[in-house]
Design brief:
Elements: H1 8-17, E1 22-28, H2 40-46, E2 53-59, H3 67-72, E3 77-81, H4 88-97, E4 101-106, E5 124-128, H5 143-156, E6 162-166, H6 174-180, E7 184-186, H7 189-192, H8 197-206
Parallel strand pairs: 1-2, 2-3, 3-4, 4-5, 5-6, 6-7
Bound molecules: zinc ion (ZN).
Zinc ion binds at residues 24, 26, 57, 166, 186.
Length: 208
């Protein structure tokens, strides 16, 4: 969502050549979050431009109604919000039946421990480190502790889920995020505000 939509095909071709591992798509419906971005048809249209993993983050109400359509559009991983569905387990099963990796995201005000009963069923925990809805927000410091708590929960349960951090990631906080236990860092503004986005990816990838 931080990239220039009018040049998306060109940007994906550039990212395909970069060191980025995944392409993260922020889908917003104007209900779960105030903003509206794009849907499955846009993602399907972008699929031919890169072979990179499509990491689709659904910031939408009732995600269970749409996960199959996003899988068919070319998603490799689909993450739904804990806050957006009363039937999280069913939704996760639907995603996995499509052969797609299933993730669950939690907003800044949602505690990590509510994922305890589903942690063994999911491939990814997404910690929102800003309030979902808009790009370019400042990182919420409490997120460090949540990453650490998620890491401990995963180890305690012998689970295999990766921890992804989304929002305000940059070259200042990346090292501490990894140290706390993050496996996947989502960077938007940091990459696309840089005059050479591929170089910004390279800088982040060098941080350990
Ligand atoms: Zn996201």
């Amino acid at each position: 969502m931080s990239a220039d939509f009018s040049r998306m095909a060109e940007i994906l071709t550039m990212l395909d050549q970069s060191e980025a591992d995944w392409i993260h798509w922020d889908v917003m419906d104007g209900h779960f979050v105030p903003n509206i971005t794009f849907g499955m048809d846009f993602i399907r249209a972008m699929r031919p431009y890169t072979k990179k993993f499509f990491d689709v983050h659904l910031m939408i109400e009732q995600p269970g109604k749409y996960v199959e359509a996003f899988a068919d559009a070319g998603a490799d991983g689909i993450t739904v919000h804990w806050e957006a569905t009363a039937h999280l387990h069913r939704c996760i099963q639907k995603i996995k039946r499509k052969g797609v990796r299933a993730g669950v995201a939690i907003n800044p005000a949602t505690p990590v421990h509510i994922l305890e009963d589903i942690i063994n069923d999911i491939d990814l925990v997404l910690i929102m480190s800003v309030n979902p809805g808009f790009g370019g927000q400042e990182f919420i410091l409490r997120s460090y502790k949540k990453i650490y708590e998620a890491k401990q929960m995963i180890e305690r349960n012998g689970a295999k889920a990766l921890i992804e951090v989304d929002g305000g990631v940059n070259d200042d906080n990346a090292s501490k995020l990894l140290e706390m236990g993050a496996d996947v860092l989502v960077a938007g503004s940091y990459i696309f505000k840089h005059k050479n986005p591929a170089e910004a990816v390279k800088i982040l990838k060098r941080i350990t």
